[in-house]
Amino acid sequence: QAQLVESGGGSVQAGGSLRLSCVASGYTASYSCMGWFRQAPGKEREGVAFVDSDVSTTYADSVKGRFTISKDNAKNTLYLHMNSLKPEDTAMYYCAADPESCKVAISKADFGYWGQGTQVTVSS
After folding, report:
1. pLDDT tens for residues 68-83?
2. Fewer Cβ close by (within 10 Å): the C or N end of the chain?
């Protein structure tokens, strides 16, 4: 059974950095697209960053130049390196994976597998 477990969230001051991790288990070969979403209270879920099986990446405009997504296939782990954090980055961050390519998965506006979330809080 597919399972995604996030870690690495926490509280940080504006301008600081955090690294989120997502360990994937189960039939990980089926995870063609992996990525991070976030949801702040009272706001819609937002796609943050994605990496496809060909290692191509996609970023939301709001995080370009500050966040970097990476994947360690040997460890079945997805990372989100977050630098120059801003208060508006405060949200619950979710790891997600889908058997489809990122182009298809993102267009569906839903992913097949989700983690439980990790909270990121950025104070000014």
Report:
1. 999 998 999 999 999 9
2. N
